[in-house]
Amino acid sequence: MEFFLAILPALFWGSIVLLNVKIGGGAYSQTLGTTIGALLFSLVVYLIARPELSPLILIIGICSGIFWAVGQSNQFKSIEYIGVSKTMPISTGLQIVSTTLFGVLVFHEWTTATTIILGIIAILCILAGIVLTTYDQKRSEDESAKLKKGTVTLLISTLGYLGYVVIARLFSVDGWSALFPQSIGMVIGGLIITYKHKPFNLYAVKNILPGLFWAAGNMFLFISQPKVGVAISYSLSQTGVVISTLGGIFLLGEKKTKRQLIFVAIGIILIIAGVICLGIAKK
Q: How far is CA 56 from CA 172, 207, 222, 238, in A?
């Protein structure tokens, strides 16, 4: 049962972008709908759990949520350029590497020779996995231009996600307490990012469903952490990249050659191996 709870965040988070793309509506409607869904779910959780909600937690949570909206909206934009099966491994890998390096440089998380070695191996595995999942033997000029746009967009996305994680950690805001304020910030950020693009439509309403999935994954992450430990819950939560990447190929029909499929499979294995190494290093 404990393992099942720990794997739920990966199942929910890995399915989100597949739902978003299936529903459609473009990056702006997807962003707005997802943030509204997260707010609705988080409001219900807050009314039931009643976690501490001080002025500091409220402010930090809202700021964190705004950063998340930047990260998520740009991830959606990247999907429009290069598809789910390329976006998600790159996005996940960049998020893991950036948050890990921040933890090492600011919080000095790697304190022994073993954790340093494991950490370096993990980062190298993740970077190699990113390269392999984007492999394309013959890429047209148009495809190269889209990959460049997608990569630049994902770098911006990564900065948003990094801010989302870092600001809460800098002020030691508990995840349960931050859940509702973060969702408020997500909606505020979503409105700021999308209001010029007329996102208020039926697609935004339909994209509330993925937002519910995201918030549910977040909740189960908090529930599983005290049961299986932060390291294991963190590692398992990141395996959602397998679901989103393979779902992009087999459910959304993103075309890959046989050679590309092999490279994608090896890339995913390397990313997961890197995540496991980081999980061990965090113990």
A: 11, 30, 20, 29
Is the Cβ–Cβ distance between 61 and 167 less than 8 Å?
Answer: no
| 10-residue averages of pLDDT along the chain (283 residues) | 80 93 95 97 93 92 96 96 93 90 84 87 91 79 88 96 90 86 96 91 96 91 75 76 92 90 92 86 70
Element at 146 (helix H, strand E): helix 141-170
Best CA proximity match to 46, nearest among 33, 32, 61:
61
Scan for tokens 């409001």, then name that residue.
Answer: 43
CA distances from 251 to 9, 75, 122, 257 (A): 20, 19, 29, 16
| Per-residue pLDDT, 248 | 94
Three-point CA angle 226, 231, 219, nearest 5°: 50
Q: Can you give the pLDDT at residue 28?
A: 95
Rounded Cα–Cα distance for residues 79 and 87 (Å): 6
What is the signed CA dihedral for 146, 85, 182, 108, rounded to 10 degrees?
A: -90
Contacts for 22 with CB less than 8 Å, ≥ 6 apart: 251, 252
Instruction: For residues 263 and 133, give the distance between their C-alpha atoms in angstroms, rounded to a whole number.
Output: 6
At 32 the pLDDT is 96
